[in-house]
Specification:
single chain; mainly alpha; Ribbon-helix-helix protein CopG domain-containing protein
């Protein structure tokens, strides 16, 4: 584990993180670590998309990329999440 640091946030966010961590039987630090390792960066998502296209034998063109982004946006919308 790396050197500890602090993150500035609002009291409301801190309190929510504390509740979420407690409900999971963990700490805020471990909760944030789980989130940070679970979520992919844009570069990681792009690399996974390229790899999936190769495995499917599909050329990863701008059109394929756009279609994929639109599909995921629709999926997130139906799940009640923001389309990022």
């Amino acid at each position: 584990m790396g050197k500890p640091t602090s993150i500035k946030t609002t009291e409301e966010v801190r309190d929510r993180l504390r509740i979420l961590a407690a409900e999971r039987g963990t700490t805020i630090t471990e909760l944030l670590e789980e989130l940070a390792t679970r979520e992919l960066t844009r570069a990681e998502r792009e690399e996974r998309a390229l790899q999936a296209a190769r495995e499917l034998g599909v050329e990863y063109t701008d059109q394929v990329q756009q279609a994929g982004q639109e599909a995921w946006a629709k999926i997130r919308a139906h799940q009640g999440g923001a389309a990022a």
